[in-house]
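hey can u check if this looks right to u? its 81 residues, i copy pasted from the old doc so theres a chance i mangled smth
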Amino acid sequence: MKRIQAQLPEDTARRLRALSAQEGVSVAELLRRGAELVLRVGPQDSPEERRRRARGVVARFSDAPEIAREHDEHLDEAFGA
C-alpha cells in the first residue's frame, strides 16, 4: 500500500470517525472504499455537459406526442442508464 496524506473538513472527519466506530473499521479503510467507488464510477460530466445532453434529448423528441408519457425511457436511452 502507498501512504498518502489528505486534509478533510472537520465535519467530514468527524462523520468518518463516527462511521468508523459504528462499522468497526478504520477511517483509512473507509477512505479506501470511497476512493474505489469514485474510481469505479469514473469521471463525471460537468453541469454544462449534462445540460447540453438534456437539451439534445428534448430537441430530438420535441415533436413526439409520447414525450410526456415516456420521458424516463427517453432519458435512460440518452444517458445510458
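The mean pLDDT is 85.
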